[in-house]
Design goal:
heterodimer, A: Rossmann fold, 6 helices, B: 15 helices, disordered C terminus
Chain lengths: ~150, ~450
């Protein structure tokens, strides 16, 4: 139990199930389950539940950008807009703003990157450009900085 | 050290509940530490490859648990298993298993594409791996354009594709010549020592154990013994001189996979005894041997049948030959009982002295040898028999060592005598019988 308390909590928000499993399991496979506790959400709705509960609130969020919502306008712009709004909401909330947000997306466009950086995200990773161990190394690094 | 793999009470059956049910893994309980270099060692059919496939999540087991980093893989969903196989474990196969329609670079990049790495990134990483394996120059070639050794290096590069912490090597040297086999062993050692990866090898050849830290001896689906090797003292139970002499030289050239059922076959015996006879005669003789083995006919009936002219339904052996062959067969059947006894003794105590039994076998295989054997030669011969019984050396190697000169710690027999004795030894061993090549009459 003592050990569990010290774990760094990470939340991955991604609508792609394989991506969620992949991201979570590489930490396990490389023997890092004692350092990190990974939770997953497939939508903002699920994510908010996890974030708003103090017991499950993450230290860091890895966030996909393009996540269609059933029954909503799912044009690319609208999807990006919804993700920007989510980031803004977290960053403006005094209880939540210390949560690190790392964008983890296939979107390479500079204008999109800039929009997220303006809102104060802590990193921007392109999916498919990092090997499993590089994701772990990045995660280690951003948590080292704070310690 | 933490346990990267923990196996608890694992039982695995093939065709469970069917008449051909086979209990391949029996009550396996072992642990493997992170960074260990281990081998599952034992004769063909002992369950060692099944063990690998259970750990890799390829073969599902019916009972027990396998924990990887404290998580039970028997509880994983198919999607989770797929990710585990792609990123957790790199498998090096005996048959290389490269995709023939893809060039080397793409073969190595392929596992990365499966987990969503972009093709550009995958090719950059694949190139790094080719550099590491010193095969960059073959990047654009197709597997069929490469030698076995080169293909196996591509196989290793591919196993490393997603940077897995566990490398599984399933008889990785089986299709390689000695120089390439040595290279592969050196590379596996590097992956263990330099990268800190956990390596699990399956092998039935003792010399490939040279860098291993932990050996799991397997027989009949069970772990019989766990041997920890300290300070590079490889497999203490191995005869030192044989270990030195047997390290790769020629051992692997032309070796055939020994995955088929390995009871001593009447065919081997027929080919051995009836060299120079026609195929039809050999086949008919073989069926009589089978009947004799199964107890369907007695010795007298067997003699009669093999002596009868071929056109009358017999095997057409001359009278003198009939007598010799029958004596040989009966002697062999007796010795097989002895060998079974030796096996059961070894099982009870792997280090038990089997000197007396070995002496019996030696007397039998040297019967008819007209040359004189010195005391040293007899000692060396006993060592060969002992190592062969324990399956530390292959059938082919027995003949090589018997033929090897005395100052090289061999037995120093003539080539012909060495071949004959090696063949006789294979015939009395109920397991792992070598195949006799029809044309050359040699064990292959």
């Amino acid at each position: 139990m003592e050990k569990d308390k010290k774990k760094i909590k990470i939340l991955l928000i991604d609508n792609d199930e394989m991506m969620r499993i992949y991201f979570r399991d590489i930490f396990w496979i490389h023997g890092r389950s004692n350092t990190y506790e990974i939770s997953m959400a497939s939508s903002f709705l699920e994510a908010e539940k996890i974030i708003n509960d103090k017991d499950t609130r993450p230290d860091t969020i890895f966030l996909d950008v393009m996540m269609p919502v059933p029954g909503e306008n799912n044009s690319p712009d609208m999807q990006i807009q919804r993700t920007l709004s989510f980031v803004e909401k977290v960053k403006k909330n005094k209880d939540l703003f210390s949560i690190k947000i790392i964008i983890y997306s296939g979107q390479k466009e500079k204008s999109i990157k800039n929009a997220f950086h303006k809102l104060g995200v802590d990193g921007y990773l392109i999916k498919g450009e990092l090997m499993p161990k590089e994701i772990i190394a990045f995660t280690d690094k951003i948590h080292e900085q704070n310690n | 050290m933490s346990k990267i793999i923990r196996i608890e009470n694992v039982n695995l059956w093939y065709q469970k509940g069917k008449p051909i049910e086979f209990h391949a893994l029996k009550n396996i309980n072992i642990e493997i530490e992170k960074g260990d270099y281990t081998a599952f060692f034992g004769p063909s059919g002992c369950g060692k490859t099944t063990m690998l496939y259970a750990i890799s999540g390829i073969d599902r087991f019916q009972e027990g648990k396998i924990f990887i980093n404290d998580r039970d893989i028997s509880e994983l969903t198919n999607q989770e298993l797929a990710i585990f196989r792609q990123t957790g474990i790199g498998i090096v196969f005996q048959q290389f298993n490269l995709v023939p329609s893809l060039n080397v670079l793409k073969n190595v990049a392929l596992p990365m594409l499966f987990v969503g790495i972009s093709s550009q990134k995958a090719e950059i990483e694949a190139l790094k791996l080719l550099e590491r394996l010193d095969i960059t120059e073959y990047a654009d070639r197709y597997p069929y354009e490469l030698s076995g050794g080169q293909q196996q290096r591509v196989g290793i590069a591919r196993a490393l594709a997603n940077d897995p912490p566990i490398i599984i090597a399933d008889e990785p040297l089986g299709n390689l010549d000695s120089a390439n086999a040595t290279k592969v062993l050196e590379f596996l050692k590097e992956l263990n020592e330099k990268d800190g990866r956990t390596i699990i090898m399956v092998t039935h050849e003792a010399w490939s154990l040279r860098d291993i830290k932990t050996i799991f001896h397997m027989k009949d689906g069970e772990i019989k013994n766990v041997e920890e090797i300290k300070g590079g003292a490889v497999a203490e139970s191995l005869s030192k001189h044989l270990y030195e002499q047997l390290s790769p030289e020629g051992l692997l050239v032309g070796r055939k996979e020994e995955s088929e059922a390995e009871r001593i076959s009447a065919r081997v015996l027929a080919n051995f005894l009836l060299r120079g006879y026609s195929m039809d005669e050999i086949r008919r003789f073989e069926s009589f041997v089978n009947d004799r083995f199964d107890g369907k006919i007695d010795r007298r009936r067997f003699c009669k049948l093999i002596n009868k002219p071929f056109k009358d339904g017999g095997a057409g052996l001359w009278k003198k030959k009939t007598k010799r062959v029958a004596a040989f067969l009966e002697g062999m059947m007796d010795k097989r009982r002895d060998i079974e006894h030796i096996y059961s003794s070894i099982e009870k105590n792997p280090e038990l002295s089997i000197r007396d039994e070995i002496r019996h076998v030696r007397n039998w295989i040297t019967k008819g040898y007209t040359g004189k054997l010195s005391h040293l030669q007899i000692m060396a011969l006993d060592q060969v028999i002992s190592d062969r019984i324990r399956d530390f050396i292959s059938a082919k190697k027995v003949a090589d060592v018997l033929d090897l000169s005395k100052n090289k710690f061999g037995v120093g027999l003539s080539f012909r005598a060495a071949q004959l004795m090696a063949e006789k030894l294979e015939l009395v061993l109920n397991d792992n019988s070598g195949q006799i090549d029809n044309k050359s009459g040699k064990i292959v």
